[in-house]
Predict the 3D structure of the following.
Amino acid sequence: MRRASDWRAHRHPSWWAFVAHRVSGLALAIFLPLHFLALSTALRGDAALDGFLRYTERPLFKVAEWGLVVLLAVHLAGGVRILMIEFAPWSGLRKDFIALTCGAGIVAGLAFALALVH
Amino acid sequence: MDRSGDMLRVAIWRSRGDGGGFAHYDVPREASQTVLDVVTYVQRRLEPSLAYRFACRVGMCGSCAMTVNGVARWTCRTHVARVADGDRLEIAPLANLPVVKDLVTDMREFFDKWARARGRFGGARTRRDDFARVDPASPARRAADAGIECIGCGVCYASCDVVRWRPDFLGPAALNRAWTLVNDSRDTAQRERLAAVAGDAGCHACHTQGSCTERCPKHIAPTAAIAGLKRATARAAVRGTLGAEPR
Amino acid sequence: MKRAAAATAAGRSDAAGRVLADAIRQGRRWYWQRMSAMVLALCVLVHLVTIVYAVRAGLSAEAVLARTRGSLAFGAFYGVFVLACAVHVPIGLARIAEEWLGTAPRVADAAASALAWLLAALGLVAVYGMVAG
């Protein structure tokens, strides 16, 4: 038999960065085809797209949109960190980039929220 | 704070049939006590049948690696005072390796993967040839030097989740060793080595979780080595030389 | 490049050749995921800024389509964006399926290819709908 690591082995920033990157990617991957389908209502004319856009005015939708924007910013920043680790000269696990990723999520979330209430 | 005189409540993994569980022991605390001291005390005074591995007990051989409070460490270099959860200590065998008995794991697959990654030097010179000239300040040699201190303790392998998810994954130590040899200008087995470390059994399965680099007691960065292998194998694949017979 | 690799792989014994061919394919997949990631890094940055501005202006069909209808720049940019997504997303999902769902590699890869085509089709249709309408 083999023993497996539990959560105590995962208490370090690089691991959390991995989880955030994978979970955000998964959520965005599920969202993407829906996003394409929604936008293709424009094929049936402006009125069709407008109908859909009014449907998204509901508060639940706005919260979901906000969440997706934050996840997109997190996935982007985390992805840039991976590209740095894999292609740039080695400079550690780039924990400064992990902080930047959190910052990017906060900035994107704030910008979107402010734009919504504007 | 000198805690000698207090008691530690220690949970140690014991094999039972095909599985196992934690057995509990009370161990007196001492000043500057290490986790290896605790295990040794239990085996000598409380439980003679406890199986565990150690050799140098001074942080040179890597034999005493175990899972302490959930994290892979060298027990001889881990002070109880630094890792004890109050008065509790949990000691288990390394993760990701078959358990032989109690705290002893079967390291064969770890070293087999080392060999599968072409982690051995292959040279062309004989004693009749002149010495190879290697500039120690060259980028390649510095990259190799950053990884050659590995003593094969298995802490990185036990800390890696990709090893758990993909049984074929060669693991951080084997890939790190391969990278030191990729950067060795004297080695002549480069094509076979790059072919051996490419793909999902090799470097491309690494997700840069960084647990290996975070936990390595010698402060080696297998993540850096694996990133280097990713670039080297991609370059070879694009040029069509990955695994190709030398012309 | 594919043919050269297959030829060298054929020079070996069957099993070893297959292992090597697999490794080459997986390495190439890693490469394309990272290349598409670099493209997406730029696209997503532009997209995020655009979305924030669009939401401020108010999301109505007129406001959005006024900017996209007949715009070659929009079509080109989002066309590239869609294709990069079609490369990037399925590779990531296939890895998750293999590692967390225990999916066999061949099955995961086949599903990934199918998803890539689906995303490209859906996405390009959406871009077309917003440009040509």
Remarks:
- The mean pLDDT of chain B is 94.
- The radius of gyration of chain B is 21 Å.
- Residues 54 and 64 of chain B are 5 Å apart (CA to CA).
